[in-house]
Sequence to fold (388 residues):
Amino acid sequence: MDYQNIIFEFVLIFAGAAIFATVFLYLKQPVILAYIGFGIAAGPWGFGLIKEPEHIEELSHLGVILLLYLLGINLKPDRLFHLFSKTAVVTLLTSLVFLVVTAAAAMAFGFGFIESLIIGASLMFSSTIISLKLIPTTALHHRHTGEMMTSVLLMQDVIAILLIVMLTGGQGENVTFAIAMLFIKLIVLAAVAYGVVRYVINNLFLRFDIIQEYTFLLALGWGMLGAGIAQAVGLSYEMGAFIAGVTFASSPVSMIIAEHLKPLRDFFLILFFFSIGAQFNFLVTQQVLLAGVVIAILIVVMKPLVFKQGFQLIGEDKKFSMELGARLGQGSEFSLLVSYSALAIGLIDLRASYLIQMVVIITFVLSTYWVVYRYRTPISSTAENRMD
Fold:
């Protein structure tokens, strides 16, 4: 793709997204859905204004990386360890329930046993972006909500990466070795990152803190470096960015830097939601329309209730547990990655792959409506529920 086309696409995406967002806000609708809606309208299966949305999706992934980096900055390492030890059982038990129930639903719609297992496995994850984008960070209650959700989502990320490794690296061979290597890499990366921040990054901030452009660049570069190294050693960009953020959390300037990075994060997240809509193919998904709608509704209803029971099991109160469940009640970006991996090695066909894609998008929409109109979020259209 040439330079002029890229410029045109950016102009089209942000001008169109601004118009759609304005209309949605006047209609008191969640603004995230405006970006997805414009993606559907402008994408190759809509009016065809954007012919190849794949490169937009790749670029938009920076928004996800920044989101995890900023989340890490808000979590001190000792706090993170406490949360992981608290939510590990909840994450594993709820994931198993989601896998079994969703796989059974897929089999009821005529999918084979292996395909149903892949569908169930891919849809047991919740969306990092939707969940965390809708969390306010200014109140103590919502900080705790964000921390609990983050620990669940990151453990789900580990499970998803293991699943992808199993699919792409021998279809389950050497699973024990893969798990051991994953945790070794995580520990080594975290230890190295902690050392770099303590002996290099913090000293650079203290020496050049009066130059704002440099501090912004150094913080951004550190987050991107952590993401890149993690990807290079077989983890994920998101994990690396989060580890970079957590190790940077103890820095005296971390909160100031986090505020400066938020607009950049939002810029790329707009691209992300646009790309989700742009890649939605109505013609193909008509083949699995009924199954997609039923399974999507099942997930949006089931996940909050199952999560509610899980969080109550570890001592959270009933109302708070229900809120956590509702905020985690959707499919995930990792659902798409798992389905792509399974499709590439022939474990599922295009019909199953498009079912997963359709369910993810529908759950994004339904879950966003539920959360925005029921709980406080940064994008609520009413002043009563809006909190950044």
The chain has 16 helices and no strands. The longest helix spans residues 175-208. The chain has one domain: 55-123+140-374.
